[in-house]
Every structure is written in structure tokens, then in C-alpha cells.
Write a structure and sequence with these properties.
Blueprint: H1 11-14, H2 30-61, H3 72-80, H4 84-97, H5 101-109, H6 114-120, H7 129-138, H8 141-151, H9 155-164, E1 167-171, E2 176-180, H10 183-199, H11 208-219, E3 237-238, H12 241-245, E4 253-255, E5 259-261, H13 263-271, H14 298-308, E6 322-326, E7 341-345, H15 346-352, E8 358-362, E9 366-370, E10 376-379, H16 383-386
Antiparallel strand pairs: 1-2, 3-4, 4-5, 6-7, 8-9, 9-10
Helix pairs in contact: 2-4, 2-5, 3-4, 5-7, 6-8, 10-11
């Protein structure tokens, strides 16, 4: 059920329909619904063009600074609900379109989708803007991506481009590692993995990609075996003492930042590891220190990381450069308790000590942050921690 415009209505007229009226989809033909879907897509594209213009202007003014964001993308995540990947894509395309009137006009009219514009925007210039806009009307996104690849630098300049494009990215949600390597490095890594994988005895059942993975894990000592002596890597697992002491226990543990793991996996990791014991309250959260000490214990720091996952400033996903921060300062009577400790990146830690910012609340439940502009933002713990 939903608002349905007549199939003959123009896209402009469709903007005027009452979104609260209800028409039974069953009364329309498939062709009519397809036409309406296409019109809706064009409307979304026109709105996307407006969104990109607005955010590009905010970027030029650096207006995101007024609400404590570290970048335009971080502001888009917090204020507009974009994922970080979408925010980066939107911000990049919006900035590029400032100098590409033909592609911008195609997006604004709904004739060119965002995906088509994104496919060519990095090779577009004021000189080829019209040509690419015309081409985008006729080509699919995949074809445009092929055109863009062909337009990129000459062979003589590719070495430097390949080097600049190098990256390794970790996706904690999917447990995947994605690497972009220069050609020679790619060939070396591939050869190394394949040569060592071929040397592994085959049982006739283990797939080739699994054998490559086994070699990859062996190289980095991630197969659960300490190569020589104690492992130099630290892997934090939160688990009940019962899981370690009782071989029949099925109580799950939790990898820091990576979710639940089985009791069997907990015991396997603990076999060659140094085990640190921390006392928890009845909810499974590390006991409080009150005024007994100023600086959080190691156990508290690990628990804050497990609870917050990243900087608690709304829209900030920083994990690497973070510190545990007292909400109510220690010097003003603040307690070294979990509810008064929060994970903050260096940038936002500094901002919260700057004039005009305030933060209060219970870090275990909800924090309220007020910007110098008066805008109120809220921050909550990871739902994985809060529902434990």
C-alpha cells in the first residue's frame, strides 16, 4: 500500500502528490508500477543533487566545525545518518561537481543517477564534462567504469599512482581483509602465498582458497600457535571464569571489537595466552574504583573499549587514537567508575575541554553533549554491551 501517481504523470507533477493518500497497488498494471518506480528513482536522484549541493557548501564553509565534527564526512554521519562510506562518496562527488556543470545538471534533472556520476567524476574535467555527461545518458554504470579506467593516467605515470593507491582495510563486521597493492608487491605476495600453499600436504578435500588462508594465518601467527616463544600480539577476549575452568561449559566469550566467540574458541586462545582476571558485577561489567584511584585500571580500560567500541562523540568512528576520559573531572570530584568513564579520540577530548562545550550523563546509559551553538546530541553504548 502507498501513494501511487497516475502512470501518465510527469516527474515534476509527481512531486505534488499527497504522500499520505493510499492507493491499492493491486489496481495498477505492472507497467504502470514500473513507470512509477522509475519516476520515484528520478525524484530520489534530484533530491540527491540538492543534498550534494548543500553539503558541498557546508564543506566550503567548514560549517561542520561548529558542531564538533572532525570533517564534513563525520558531520554527515552524525547529522544526516549516512554510513561513513556513503558520506565519503557523497562529499567527494559533491565537491567535484562544483566544476562540472553538465554532470551536475544531469544529476539535478534526474537524467543521470548518482552511481553514473560517481563512476566518471574522478576523470571528468571542465574540458570533457559535456562529453562524459552525454556518454552517461547512453551507458550503464559498468560501461562508464570501464571508460573511466581507460581515461586514467598513461602507463608511465601508473607506478606512482599504484603506489599512492596502496591500502589495507579491515572490515570487523565481516572479518575480511582487503588489500590494494602495487603490481610488483601484489605479484610477490601472491607468489609467496601460492608457493607455500602448494607445499602444504593436501587431504584432497581442503579447497585451494582455504589452503591460501591457512598459509596467510601461519605467516602472521594467527593460527592459535605461538611461533617461537610468547606471541608479541595482544588479543583481548572477555570470558567467564567458568568457561576456562570447566571444559563442559558452553558460555560464550567476546573478542574485543569483534563480537561473540564459542567457549571452545575461548579455551583454545587461552591455552597459549597470558590470562588476566578482572572481577565483574552481577551484570558482567567490571567493578568500580570510585575515588580510590585517578587513572582507570587496565581492566576498566578494556571494559570501556568493549562498551564504547570507538570514540563516543556522535558521528566519530575513531578507534586508534582514543583515550579514557572522565565525564566529571577527577579534580572536581569525579569518580573512576565505569559510568563516569568514556572513550574519546584526541580531537574530541580536546574539544570537550574547550570553552562552550558540555557533556553529562551516565556513560553506561546515555550521554548528552551540548555544542557551543546550543545543539544537543546524544550518545549511547554499543547495543552489544548494553543488552548483555
Amino acid at each position: 500500500m502507498g501513494t501511487i501517481a497516475p502512470a501518465s504523470a510527469s516527474a515534476a507533477d509527481a512531486d505534488e502528490f499527497d504522500l499520505d493518500s493510499v492507493v491499492d497497488l493491486a489496481t495498477l498494471s505492472t507497467e504502470a508500477i514500473m513507470g512509477l518506480a522509475a519516476d520515484s528513482s528520478a525524484r530520489i536522484t534530484r533530491e540527491k543533487a540538492r543534498y550534494l549541493r548543500y553539503t558541498a557548501e557546508i564543506g566550503k564553509r567548514e560549517g561542520w566545525r561548529t558542531e564538533g565534527a572532525t570533517s564534513l564526512e563525520a558531520w554527515m554521519v552524525e547529522r544526516c545518518g549516512d554510513s561513513l562510506a556513503s558520506a565519503r562518496s557523497h562529499a567527494h562527488v559533491g565537491e567535484q561537481l562544483e566544476d562540472l556543470p553538465e554532470l551536475a545538471a544531469g544529476l539535478a534533472s534526474g537524467d543521470l543517477t548518482f552511481d553514473k556520476v560517481r563512476a566518471v567524476v574522478d576523470v571528468a574535467t571542465p574540458a570533457n564534462d559535456r562529453e562524459l555527461a552525454d556518454l552517461a545518458l547512453e551507458c550503464t554504470v559498468r560501461q562508464l567504469q570501464e571508460v573511466a579506467r581507460a581515461e586514467r593516467g598513461a602507463p608511465s605515470s601508473r607506478a606512482e599512482t599504484d603506489h599512492e593507491a596502496r591500502s589495507v582495510r579491515f572490515n570487523d563486521g565481516c572479518h575480511t581483509v582487503t588489500a590494494q597493492l602495487p603490481p610488483e608487491s601484489y605479484a610477490q605476495v601472491k607468489s609467496c602465498l601460492e608457493t607455500r600453499a602448494r607445499a602444504l600436504p593436501s587431504d584432497g578435500e581442503t579447497r585451494w582458497d582455504q589452503r591460501l588462508c591457512d598459509v596467510y594465518l601461519e605467516i602472521f601467527g594467527s593460527d592459535g600457535k605461538a611461533p617461537q616463544g610468547a606471541s608479541p600480539y595482544v588479543v583481548v577476549v572477555h570470558a567467564a571464569l567458568e568457561t576456562l575452568a570447566d571444559e563442559s561449559s558452553e558460555l560464550a566469550g567476546e573478542l574485543e571489537r569483534d563480537g561473540l566467540i564459542s567457549a571452545e574458541t575461548v579455551r583454545r586462545l587461552a591455552c597459549d595466552a597470558t590470562v588476566m582476571v578482572a572481577l565483574d558485577d552481577e551484570f558482567g561489567h567490571t567493578m568500580y574504583e570510585g575515588r580510590a584511584r585517578r587513572f582507570p585500571t587496565g581492566s576498566q580500560r578494556r571494559e570501556v573499549m568493549r562498551r564504547d567500541r570507538h570514540c563516543r562523540f556522535p558521528g566519530c568512528s575513531n578507534v586508534t587514537f582514543t583515550n579514557v576520559h572522565h565525564i566529571k573531572p577527577w579534580g572536581s570530584g569525579g569518580r573512576t567508575d565505569l559510568e563516569n568513564l568514556v572513550l574519546m579520540c584526541q580531537h574530541h577530548h580536546y574539544r570537550l575541554h574547550s570553552s562552550g562545550w558540555s557533556m553529562n550523563g551516565n556513560a553506561n546509559e546515555e550521554l548528552t553533549l551540548v555544542a557551543p551553538t546550543g545543539r544537543v546530541m546524544t550518545s549511547r553504548p554499543s547495543p552489544l554491551w548494553a543488552t548483555r
